[in-house]
Design goal:
By secondary structure, this protein is mainly beta. Helices cover 9% and strands 45% of the residues. The protein contains 2 helices and 22 strands. The chain has helices at 3-29, 244-249, and strands at 39-51, 54-66, 74-81, 90-97, 100-106, 117-122, 148-156, 159-164, 172-175, 184-189, 195-203, 226-234, 253-260, 264-266, 279-290, 294-303, 305-310, 313-319, 337-343, 346-355, 362-367, 373-375. The strands form 2 sheets. Strands 1, 2, 3, 4, 5, 6, 7, 8, 9, 10 and 11 form an 11-stranded antiparallel beta sheet that branches. Strands 12, 13, 14, 15, 16, 17, 18, 19, 20, 21 and 22 form an 11-stranded antiparallel beta sheet that branches. The chain is elongated and about 95 Å long.
Amino acid sequence: MNKSKKNLMTRLLIVIIMSVLLLQNTYSQNYIPLDTIHWEINAQSYVQENYKGKNAIYIQRGMAFLKDTKFLNGTIEFDVYLTKRQGFPGVRFRASDRNNMESFYLRPHLPNKPDSNQATPVINGISPWQLYFGPSYSVPYDYNYDGWTHVKLVINGRQAQVYLDYSEKPNLSWNLVHEPIEGEVAIGGGGAGPMHYANFKINNKEYEIVDFNPLKRKPIQGLIQEWEISDKFEEKKVDDISALKSLISNRKWRGKIKIEEGTAANIARKVVLNDGTLKNTAFAKINIISDKDQTKLFEFGYSDRVVAILNNTPIYKGSNQYRSRDYRFLGTVGLFDAIYLNLKKGENTLLMAVSENFGGWLITGKFRDLKGITIKK
């Protein structure tokens, strides 16, 4: 072999090697295989298979967490094959622990509905979509059930956008709730309907936000701004009226929480619901100073169930939980209930024993007329 041919082959070999290394580097930074080497899968069941032309994973009732990867800012993309069954396929990111993170998921069983999808934080294990709802956190979308749906999220600081099916413009822009802290990434979701995922990709070098115009909810005027929150206890204990004073006096108080979204206070900020116990109820408290004996109308909202107690006497019991009133009742929070409070002169204590299943552990309220009363701070 002459020298020129040998040099040519050497240069060609170098080009081939560099190309392979470049492809490997690009692959390692972007596309991530959906297998047990790269993912910790915590699900009722899963199957790795080739589906509709793509190497995919089929996940039912659970999540797959990406191993050895932390995410702060960048782009997350994946394909999901949707069905009309109720399900909530999506992605969670910036998981500082397994109970606190941001998320975006689809509701493929609700095409073209205002809540076709959902952006929401996860706070102490609860995804409070009954607080973070409406056009600020979801957008109607006509889903495709005969092919793969592409989902692309762009995250930068406290801002996030989602592009569906390679849209040139973001379908939804929203403000993230948690402080920007790097954390884990996961795919999957709840509900009985399993979904196929494919072509998962992360690029932490692309995070440009464009046309960021999130919709803002109009705050409810005149709300109680803070509620003091107790430790939790079993819901059934509120039914024992003879032991109610003891139940109240034995509580430890966790501090005050402020209302969010101009709508309600999130009890999960102070109390962790899912800890393996049957305790799912906490008191939310305000103290009302009245300048005389009088009756005042108090409008309120809650999730999921409540018992109102004025000066150690129960005066109201209700349910606002998901599907408690009809099959499409969401249990979102607003001032949908009201009670007349018979206040005595001096200090009065209003306790709302709020019980939670899922969707948001919430309390809110206001007095239509504050004449003659003040809320103790």
